[in-house]
Amino acid sequence: MPTPRHDVLILGAGPAGISTALWLRDFKISCLLLERERQPGGQLHQIHAPIPNYLTAYGWDGARFAGVALDDARAASLEILVGEPVRRIVMERPARRGGAMKRSSPPSSSAAGVFRVDRGVRERLRASVVVLATGLSRRTLGVPGETELEGRGVSHSANRERMRWAGRPVAVVGGGTAAVEDAVLCAEVGCEVTLIHHSTRFRARNDFLQRARANPHVKFVTNSEVRAVVGKERVEALRYRKRGTKRDETIAVDAVFVRIGWEPETSIVRGMVRLDRRGYVRVNPSGRTSTPGLYAVGDVCSPDAPSIAGAVGQGAAAAWDIARTLGRLPR
Fold first, then answer.
1. Nearest to 95 by CA among 134, 132, 130, 133
2. Whole-model pTM?
3. In a 3-state reduction of DSSP, which class is residue 138?
4. Per-residue pLDDT reduced to its tens digit, 163-191
5. In 3-state terms, what secondary structure has residue 28?
6. Residues 139, 152: Cα–Cα separation, whole Å
7. Measuring CA to CA, which residue among 1, 310, 258 is closest to residue 128?
8. Which residues of 104-136 are buried (b: 16+ CB within 10 A; e: fewer)?
9. What does the pLDDT look like over 213-238, one tens digit per residue?
10. Predicted confidence (pLDDT) per residue in 118-134, tens digit
11. Using an 8 Å Cβ cutoff, are 234 and 149 in contact?
12. Cα end-to-end span (Å), the chain
């Protein structure tokens, strides 16, 4: 069996992955970051509003934060491979399991095994430890026209694109804070907004809901399911159906903002680690999963409190534990 070239492979080069790599470098542990997109930064590239709650980056947008993070990675000479997704993770030699833990907690990892990570068609990498820092991906409606009209009226951020559609009819789909906030932002620039939600109950913050309900340019359509985004060269209309009816209704809109939440990027480890009912990786405070030697950090294991600060801190905590697992620090 080939000897691992790196001690640790980190899947994902967002804040959690880069934080983990920086700490591992400090512990003199070799690691390689694998990023499927062409540029590191992860979900930072999805943040278009000013960041209000991260020390030293107050008021920045995600692109600026990602640029500084990449500068730090370069200054630290971190190795990052981009532009190719990881296709499979294989445990070639299992780690020895540590002492038993309670049923409600993932088992601990006390020694390293060997993992093979298949990237691309023929590229195979090996390491003693794998860190999952794959974050979240946007949920999609999965209806005709959504993918085909992406960028031609179908959007995911009013912060980024509302001025493009100022004064024109738009639809926002979703019932969380992001959806209701987008409805308010579009209404503020003169859009006639139809907010479509599959339920009558909203998960949005009360202050945003109150603002939306008080705005005469926001129309609520509840208990409704989107059936299709209509248009040829651009978005022309949205088709939906009220629950309990058998007839579709169509509204003319120039843009559709899809804001139905996020889901964890865990397909690569399904069947390998314990997940919760929503598909998030279950971890202990050090990022250990139910598979010895496989860690998870960041939003992929943070269903209740996803944040940049949390991701960075989890990366540090996992690196400390990995250093102890690999015998680089005393236990």
1. 130
2. 0.86
3. strand
4. 999 999 999 999 999 999 999 999 999 99
5. coil
6. 19
7. 1
8. eebbbbeebbbbbbebeeeeebbbbbbbbbbbb
9. 999 999 999 999 999 999 999 999 99
10. 997 778 999 999 999 99
11. yes
12. 29
Sorted by where each starts, the structural domains of the chain and their CATH numbers stand as 6-137+262-325 (3.50.50.60), 140-258 (3.50.50.60)
**CB-side neighbour CA atoms (13 Å) of 72:** 19
According to DSSP, the β-strands at 218-221 and 193-196 are parallel
Q: Is residue 101 predicted with pLDDT exceeding 60?
A: no
Q: How far apart are CA 206 and CA 57, in angstroms?
A: 27
Whats the size of the chain, residue-wise? 331
Using the 8-state DSSP alphabet, how is residue 120 labeled?
T
What would the two tokens of residue 59 be?
């008021």
Q: What is the DSSP string of 261-328?
A: -EEE--GGGBTTB-B-TTSPBP--TT-B-SSTTEEE-GGGG-SS---HHHHHHHHHHHHHHHHHHTTS
What SS3 state is found at 187? Answer: helix
More confident residue, 110 or 92: 92
CA–CA dist 206, 210 (Å, integer): 6
Nearest 5°: phi and psi at 110? -115, -10
C-beta of residue 26 within 8 angstroms of C-beta of residue 142: no
How far from chain centre, in Å, is Cα 254?
A: 28
Identify the residue whose tokens are 């049923």: 103
pLDDT digits (tens, 9 = 90+) for 54-72: 999 999 999 999 999 999 9
pLDDT at residue 1, rounded to an integer: 55
C-alpha span between 228 and 236 (Å, rounded): 11
